[in-house]
Amino acid sequence: MPAWRIWYDDGAVHDGEAEAEWDALPRHGVLIVKETGRARGDLVHMGLDYYWLEDGEVRSCSRADLDRYLERPRGLARVKFGRWARDDVWRKAHDEAL
Q: What is the model's pTM?
């Protein structure tokens, strides 16, 4: 399973691999989520409204695409909410992720 790292708008950065770790992290304030260890290389998710872990992979979407996921059991419980941040906070997370 790929590992992931989440950057938050308060400057916090969290790493994990397991679904229980994902579920325990804050749901709001996500700036960037980076998946590592993927067969096709790392994948950076940013600038979206919602992020979640499904079948061991990070998924992300805008508000318009979220309805399908929320219809699933436990859908809302797994979603992390993205947001905008001050430029210096965003730039620091962006530069670390890329």
A: 0.71
